[in-house]
């Protein structure tokens, strides 16, 4: 089958993605209650009991809200680096020691033929990471919650078949929005969130002929619109990387899942 994935839901209120190679199903973050996770999976005809492991990007609530309950219910191993585990231990309740797996930043875990590699990103969390998934020659990168796209991150995600990439906010909408300036400054800072413009600029540096789809993720419900994110990113890509005509910019949703994207399909 190759590798496929679905963004179960993404936004400021919750995030979760499933990656499946036909033998192993890995869940990236559990930002919703266990019940909500089950409903989102059901939309994609996926049984929650079929999940084999969870990898965690960082400890903020929109990424771990249901982590403890879901992992306990289905007896699942959780992979995170040591600093993230220090925060998780205070937030998600008791996890069986056998299911507490330390995956250091930059480390690799293999689930059969599915290879998962983490890499450090810049965000106001203990030790946040993104992930690259490999199945044969196929590559999927999941990178959200970062204040800026460093050269090291660009190097990690270059040559992906598909990406789940943060397009959190429109800078002008954020600046005139209702948030206190202290929160705006955090979001706009190097350890905050990636804007539509920054995502578009970064994308031009990592696109190759191999890249077919980019899922615009983690949109702010207050300071962004999906149509605006798509228009902004597309205009930058068309100006700076016009040869990327095969690229598809895909929506994600705060209240429902995306269709399965099968990376080996034509």
TrEMBL record:
RNA-binding as UniProt keyword: no
Entries under Gene3D superfamilies matching the protein: Ribonuclease Z/Hydroxyacylglutathione hydrolase-like (3.60.15.10)
Metallo-beta-lactamase domain boundaries: 13-178
Keyword Hydrolase: yes
One Pfam family in the UniProt entry: Lactamase_B_2
Function, in words: Counteracts the endogenous Pycsar antiviral defense system. Phosphodiesterase that enables metal-dependent hydrolysis of host cyclic nucleotide Pycsar defense signals such as cCMP and cUMP.
Molecular function in Gene Ontology: hydrolase activity
Organism placement in taxonomy: Bacteria, Bacillati, Bacillota, Bacilli, Bacillales
Protein name: MBL fold hydrolase
Family matches, as InterPro entries: Metallo-B-lactamas (IPR001279), RibonucZ/Hydroxyglut_hydro (IPR036866), WalJ/YycJ-like (IPR052533)
Membrane-spanning segments: none
Originating species: Paenibacillus marchantiophytorum
PANTHER family: EXODEOXYRIBONUCLEASE WALJ (PTHR47619:SF1), METALLO-HYDROLASE YYCJ-RELATED (PTHR47619)
Keyword set, alphabetical order: Hydrolase
Catalytic reaction(s) noted: 3',5'-cyclic UMP + H2O = UMP + H(+); 3',5'-cyclic CMP + H2O = CMP + H(+)
């Amino acid at each position: 089958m190759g590798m496929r994935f679905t963004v179960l839901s993404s936004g400021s209120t919750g995030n979760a993605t499933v990656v499946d190679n036909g033998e192993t199903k890995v869940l990236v973050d559990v930002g919703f209650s266990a019940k909500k996770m089950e409903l989102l999976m059901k939309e994609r005809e996926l049984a929650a009991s079929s999940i084999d492991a969870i990898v965690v990007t960082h400890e903020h609530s929109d990424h771990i809200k249901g982590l403890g309950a879901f992992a306990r219910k289905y007896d699942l191993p959780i992979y995170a680096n040591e600093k993230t585990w220090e925060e998780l231990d205070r937030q998600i309740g008791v996890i069986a020691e056998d299911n507490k797996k330390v995956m250091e930043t930059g480390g690799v875990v293999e689930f059969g033929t599915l290879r998962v590699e983490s890499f450090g990103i810049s965000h106001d969390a203990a030790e946040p990471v993104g992930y690259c998934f490999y199945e044969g020659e196929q590559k999927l990168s999941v990178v959200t919650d970062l204040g800026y796209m460093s050269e090291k991150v660009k190097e990690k995600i270059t040559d992906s078949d598909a990406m789940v990439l943060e397009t959190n906010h429109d800078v002008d909408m954020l600046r005139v929005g209702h948030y206190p300036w202290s929160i705006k400054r955090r979001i706009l800072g190097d350890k905050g969130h990636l804007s539509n413009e920054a995502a578009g600029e970064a994308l031009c540096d990592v696109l190759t002929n191999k890249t077919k789809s980019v899922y615009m993720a983690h949109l702010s419900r207050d300071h962004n619109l999906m149509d605006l994110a798509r228009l902004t990113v597309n205009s930058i890509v068309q100006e700076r990387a016009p040869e990327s005509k095969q690229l598809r910019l895909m929506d994600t949703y705060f209240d429902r899942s995306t269709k399965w994207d099968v990376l080996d399909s034509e």
